[in-house]
Write a structure and sequence with these properties.
Pfam families: MFS_1. Helix 4 packs antiparallel against helix 5, helix 8 packs antiparallel against helix 12 and helix 11 packs antiparallel against helix 16. This protein is 79% helix and 0% strand. It has one domain: MFS general substrate transporter like domains (Growth Hormone, Chain: A). The protein is globular, with a radius of gyration of 20 Å. With 406 residues, it is mostly helical. The two termini are 26 Å apart.
């Protein structure tokens, strides 16, 4: 029996870690309905500037992951998570009292730096206890619970806006973050024994970076995850503009966003059931091919509609694509981490940081291409899907075949 299971049961741990990892999604999705109000009240210069309220969180996330993983290997998982939640709460306070757009972005950057800790250290905590397909199954179950957050978060933001101004959204974030921190502190035990801890040093971090980059499976699957998440990040940052500005759905935006998020959750649940039978690589390969082919076909369809396909067609496309992405999310993380269990914390940091930097850079470019049509977004799924297939083929070329059992 593990140290964790003495105090925290399997189901409760899944729910707790899902809530912790979901702080990233919560910090992003809960305020999507308020982006227009925030940019207007804080006098952002142009309509696409509202996207930076989302991008700033991902920038903080990318930077923070490099710090917290190695730190958790040195001082333990719990103290590193405490530090991250502290930064997140400070960032929430800055956003609550922001009087201009710059201060808002600083607050959002701190929130990103903060949520990097539960996001990345939780994966190392899981890797301390599980490996291989068992790890993929656990991550998928966590993602299944996690998906409730993006399903419900925009509706929560919209509900708050019915009764109060957008600043109360950050008050809600502060309260939820504090409650999750207390739950974690009281219930979760430390999973990294003292004898397994390593001194914190830049030299050790650099060695880990080189090991990740030189390990074909780790680097290859990390890049594939980055490419796929880039297109999804593009969707996240422009979703409010697409649904409310372009298609005029108004307050129904939260409903559309939630329904599409359910496709991700359903896929994560299905993946948890199938991964033990078919293996991570086989499932991932077929999901990636399906995503790419469908995106190419829908890109042609979108072009024929001058970038304005019917709403029902767009939502149907997104549902299938997000189902494929739900299959891919947990598997690529698990496959990248699999050969690096001996440096789990710092490896999770490097893998998470590379994935986020890649997706943030490409995703921001995709979002800034928004021109009142969905053609740039649909094209990004097609192009990055094809690039991901090529990267996956390169990754497995000298080891197992794509349809192997790994």
């Amino acid at each position: 029996m593990s140290a964790t299971s003495k105090k925290l049961g399997f189901v409760e741990q899944i729910i707790l870690l899902a809530f912790m990892i979901s702080m990233v999604a919560l910090a992003i999705d809960v305020m999507l309905p308020a982006l227009f109000d925030i940019s207007r009240d804080l006098q952002a210069e142009n309509p696409n500037d509202r996207q930076y309220v989302i991008a700033a969180v991902f920038l903080g996330l990318a930077i923070g992951q490099l710090f917290y993983g190695p730190l958790s290997d040195s001082i333990g998982r719990k103290p590193a998570i405490y530090m991250g939640f502290g930064l997140f709460l400070i960032g929430c306070l800055l956003s609550i009292f922001a009087q201009n757009f710059t201060i808002m972005l600083v607050g959002r950057l701190l929130q990103g730096l903060g949520v990097a800790s539960p996001r990345i250290v939780s994966l190392a905590l899981i890797r301390d206890q599980y490996q291989g397909r068992e790890m993929a199954r656990f991550v998928s179950l966590v993602m299944t619970v996690f998906i409730l957050v993006p399903v419900l978060a925009p509706a929560l933001g919209q509900l708050i806006l019915y009764f109060a101004e957008w600043r109360m959204i950050f008050v809600a974030l502060f309260v939820l973050g504090l409650a999750t921190l207390i739950w974690f502190g009281l219930r979760q035990e430390e999973t990294l024994a003292l004898e397994h801890r390593a001194p914190l040093s830049l030299k050790r971090i650099w060695r880990a970076v080189k090991e990740v980059v030189r390990t074909r499976a780790a680097f290859g699957f990390t890049m594939v995850g980055g490419f796929i998440f880039s297109a999804f990040l593009g969707y996240l940052t422009m979703s409010q503009q697409i649904f409310q500005d372009q298609y005029g759905v108004g307050d129904m935006f939260a409903v559309y966003f939630g329904v599409l998020a359910l496709a991700l959750g359903t896929a994560s649940f299905v993946n948890a059931r199938l991964v033990m039978r078919f293996g991570m690589r086989k499932l991932s390969y077929h999901a990636l091919v399906a995503l790419t082919v469908l995106s190419m076909l829908f890109m042609v369809y979108t072009y024929l509609w001058n970038g304005q396909p019917p709403l029902w067609a767009l939502v149907s496309f997104f549902m299938v694509i997000f189902f494929c992405i739900g299959i891919l999310f947990g598997n690529f993380n698990a496959m990248a981490m699999e050969p690096l269990g001996h440096i789990a914390g710092v490896a999770a940091a490097v893998i998470g940081s590379i994935t986020t930097f890649v997706s943030m850079g490409l995703g921001t470019v995709i979002a800034q291409l928004y021109d009142g049509t969905v053609l740039p977004l649909v094209a990004s799924f097609a192009v990055l899907g094809a690039l991901s297939i090529a990267a996956m083929a390169w990754t497995v070329r000298t080891s197992q075949t794509v349809t192997g059992s790994g």
